[in-house]
Amino acid sequence: GEYVKPFTPEKAKEIIMSLQQPAVFCNMVFDWPAQHWTAEHLSKVLNGKQIRFRMGMKSTDTVPQFETSCSYVEATLEEFLTWNCDHSSTSGPFIDYDYSKFWAYADYKYVVSLFEDKTDIFQDVIWSDFGFRGRNGRESTLWIGSLGAHTPCHLDSYGCNLVFQVQGRKRWHLFPPEDTPFLYPTRIPYEESSVFSKVNVVNPDVKRFPRFQEARRHVVTLSPGQVLFVPRHWWHYVESVDPVTVSINSWIELEEDHQARVEEAIARMLVCALKTAEDPHSTRAWLNPTEVEETSHEVNCRYLNRAVSAFFDHYRTSKTEIQALRTNGEHMKKEEFNMHNNLMEVEQTDSQNLTSGTVGEQAACPFGPDLVPVLPSSEDPPSETGGMFKNDGKDFVGKAGEHFDKLHCTKKQRMMSGRENEIVEQVASNSTMAPSQTFISTDDLLDCLVNPQVTKIVAQLLIQGRSL
């Protein structure tokens, strides 16, 4: 008979909206027409359309390859495949890029823009199978890369993420939101909705970033036909481990996004103001190539005001929400300063508790062969020349597959320190200067001012001030 999917749309959505850790959905997209969206197929559909590729180095540098340091070429998918298959190019847009030294990445391509004259293709992507009615390719983004193509480690300010792997495999390095202080967050280069890490997580400079060793890495290699769920604010570094990779993703809006937009508007105003004042003529050095909007102070003021107004418009029908903001004001200082404090390591008994849940807890757990949790990795990160280019494909879901039956889904309780001054220590942990250095750059100041913990507090203060 017809194969039945392991989760109904309603159950899948319930899992996505409640799950606090990354997980891989299996056997959910076998009937999607988009499973045939290989690079070869898309090259025929696009029929010579030019796409922008980001060109990066296959290197083992400890400095992340941000988009501001990459070069770019305009090419067709056919030209990309020729360069990728022949490992050389005697003519065309890739002629200056030695395949042995460079990777190419057509990243962050909005499907609605790419296929603007072929709207029927939007129906090939069926996110409604995960409970998001009406969501399809129109709300999706396409990623096509060669071996070694990657995005530097970052977190997305808005929503959670569903990623469908179509062709080839990608390795994901994920870190929980609580590990933010250990990832040394920065807003340079600036991109709305992306907070970058100063650390190259596959080749970290632990002398410069010592606290990174405290971060809890979760690793999964995503294969074709699988869908990865990335919860809100989980850090991720994503790398292609096969000659050609194709992925389709969609960011799912969340209730928390309304305040997050205010936080992003604050970061935008501060970054643009200080960096423009520092040097009005070199925005390209700090503004990500994806950012094309005007960055004048007047525009950014309007942007912030629109974000705050939108927040109140959303909650206007619920007086209890606004009242809660007022009530919480007196508690905010203590709660906010504790929110991201160093979390005490989970005691060894926690690992024992994973298998000792009650019968009721285990019965409610969605994990199984069709939903596999991404577990913390106990291994060193694979290097770009070792683990990435010599991957044997045996590390499916970071060894979680063999352990799924032992897990239960109660959210682990974490003990939090009550020392208010620890936020200062965390923000200060971003500073990479030696004690003897006294010069503080604009970027050093911005790393403190627009630290995610700080912008969250400022956003709440702004909102509370307007609601009183």
TrEMBL record:
Subcellular location per UniProt equals: Cytoplasm
Q: Which residues form the JmjC domain?
A: 103-267
* Record keywords, A-Z: Cytoplasm
Q: Does the keyword Cytoplasm apply?
A: yes
Chief location of this protein within or outside the cell: cytoplasm
- InterPro entries associated with the record: Cupin_8 (IPR041667), HSPB1-associated_protein_1 (IPR013296), JmjC_dom (IPR003347)
**One Pfam family this sequence matches:** Cupin_8
Q: Name one GO cellular component term.
A: cytoplasm
| Coiled coil, from the record | none
Q: Highest taxon of the source?
A: Eukaryota
Its job: May play a role in cellular stress response.
Subunit-level organization: Interacts with CRYAB and HSPB1.
Spell out the protein name for this chain.
HSPB1-associated protein 1
- Please report the organism this UniProt entry assigns to the protein: Myotis lucifugus (Little brown bat)
Q: Which gene encodes it?
A: HSPBAP1
